[in-house]
Structures are given as structure tokens and as C-alpha cells.
Amino acid sequence: MRLRGKQVKPLQTLEITIIDDAKLKKAITAAALGSAMEWFDFGVYGFVAYALWQIFFPGATPG
Fold first, then answer.
1. What is the pLDDT along the chain (63 residues), one digit of tens a residue?
2. What is the domain count for the chain?
3. Which of 2, 25, 40, 57 is least surrounded by CB atoms within 10 angstroms?
4. Upper half-sphere CA count for residue 25 (Cβ side, 13 Å)
């Protein structure tokens, strides 16, 4: 097999990785939960930062 002028050898049996579906589902779930938690944390930080700005600097404009 050739790819843009380079010779590509076929895959051997030992070069193939078999993925366990249960572990893949667990990894995807963990990544999704971690991302959701990170966005929640970002939202809470933004809300609290704005609230504290209004409390401590009522007459000032941010920026």
C-alpha cells in the first residue's frame, strides 16, 4: 500500500489494540463529569466575583 509516495506496511496482529467497551464507557463518563464540574466551577466563580464586586465597590465599573 502506498500513501503519498511512501510505502506503508500492513498492520500485524501484535500492533492492533482491542478496547474494552466497559472501560471506554467509564472513561467517557468520567471525562464528561469532569468537564461539567469544571464549567459549574467557572459559573460559580463568575457569579461570586460579580457579587463581591458589587458589595465592595458599589460605585465603580469593572474593567
1. 566 777 888 878 777 787 899 999 999 999 999 999 999 999 999 999 999 998 998 887 766
2. 1
3. 2
4. 3
